Amino acid sequence: MADTLFELAFLVVVPFWALMIVAPGWRWSRRIAGSIFIALPALVVWAFAIAPVLPEFAAEMLNPDLAGVRALFADDDVVAAVWAQVLAWDLLVGRWIYLDSRERRIHPLIMAPVMVLTILLSPIGLPLYLALRIPLTRNRQVTTPDA
For residue 146, what pLDDT is reported? Predict the structure, then answer.
C-alpha cells in the first residue's frame, strides 16, 4: 500500500504543475492555481499513508530527536507520507511563484525552468526565483491579472 501511495502522491500534483508550466497564460490555470486547495489531493494521500502509524509519528513529532526520526523513516508508510507532505509543500511554493510571476508579468519562458527546478529542488527554485524577480520587475508596475 505504501508503494501505491508514494506513487499516487506524485501523480496527484503533476497536473497542477503541468498547468502552471505548460499553460501559464490559460485562464483556467490561473483559476486552479489561485485556489489554496491545490495541495489538498497530496494531503489526502498523506492522511492515508500516515494513518497506520499516526500514534508513533505524532509521539515522535511532539518530542523529536534524530534517532527517533531515523527509526520512523524505516517504515514505508512514513516515507510515503513524508513524500506526500514534501510534494504538497513544493506545490504551495510553486503556486506562490506562479501567481507572483504572473502578477509581475515575468515571461513564461523565463519561468518554466524556474518552475521545473522548484518541482525538483524547491530549496533551490525558491531562492532562484526570489533573486530573479527583483531585476526582472525593477521598472515594471506590478498589477493583478484578471481572474
Answer: 55
